[in-house]
Design brief:
2 domains; single chain; Spore Coat Polysaccharide Biosynthesis Protein SpsA, Chain A; 9 strands
Length: 249
């Protein structure tokens, strides 16, 4: 049976967290799914864990890359192998609540949105709740996205046809922002569910964990999107204020 949703999991040196992440996808109340995990050249125990999960559940498929090509490339490799018309992104250290996909599918059908995202509860490196929640507005436009990204990638459910028109690129940027911006700029609608149906792990090594690194990457992202200098400066000020509210207020 063709799956209704293809879950995209890029995996690189994530032996401590990847099994729990994938099992949270397999535990969804919406059972008609496949999990495509891409081993992005890992040199730790990640490949063995992925192989074992694949042998245990026929819904898991593993793609092995010989060299690390970055998270954008890994996701795109998984999308190329996907069978479903809907894509859901799950990073290898994040987790889903069991009702996530079921709730998103209902909103997608009700609103006609091409992209549905949810709020996310933050957890630390050990998986403990930090008490912080990244809330999801009712909708996000392309212009709003430039002044602060409210779309956590691990919460996204998206029509495959829209992603294939505007895939992620260049892992040295905020590759998710580039893709979401272009999809929304193309006329697609985004709908948010302001309930924490995912748990988002904030680590020092992540892009969002290093605020200075994240800000520098956002400036480069504006340039990639062709945003002019004056507008880029205004949007960047909004981005910084958004970050202060999101992480410290």
């Amino acid at each position: 049976m063709t799956p209704r949703v293809s879950v995209i999991v890029p995996a690189y040196r994530c032996e401590r967290t990847v099994e729990e992440s994938i099992r949270s996808a397999l535990a969804q109340t919406m059972r008609e799914l496949e999990v495509i995990a891409v081993d992005d050249g890992s040199d730790d125990g990640t490949p063995k864990i992925l192989d074992r999960l694949q042998s245990e559940d026929a819904r898991v498929r593993v793609i092995t890359l010989s060299e690390n090509g970055g998270v954008a490339n890994a996701r795109n490799c998984a999308v190329q192998a996907a069978q479903a018309e809907l894509l859901a992104f799950l990073d290898s250290d994040d987790l889903w609540e069991p009702e996530k996909l079921h709730r998103q599918l209902a909103v997608m059908e009700k609103t006609g949105a091409a992209l549905v995202f949810t709020a996310a509860a933050c957890i630390d490196e050990r998986g403990e709740p930090s008490g912080k929640v990244f809330h999801a507005p009712e909708t996000v436009t392309a212009n709003r996205l430039l002044s602060g990204n409210d779309i956590v990638t691990s919460t996204v459910l998206l029509r495959r046809v829209d992603y294939e028109r505007h895939p992620m690129e260049r892992s040295d940027l905020h590759e998710d922002v580039v893709s979401w911006y272009r999809i929304l700029k193309d006329g697609a609608k985004a709908a948010g569910i302001d309930e924490p149906l995912a748990r988002y792990r904030v680590t020092k090594a992540s892009k969002t964990g290093s605020k200075v690194r994240s800000a520098a990457m956002m400036w480069k992202t504006y340039r990639c999107l062709g945003v002019g200098f004056f507008r880029r400066t205004v949007c960047f000020a909004g981005y910084l204020l958004h970050g202060v509210r999101r992480y410290w207020l």
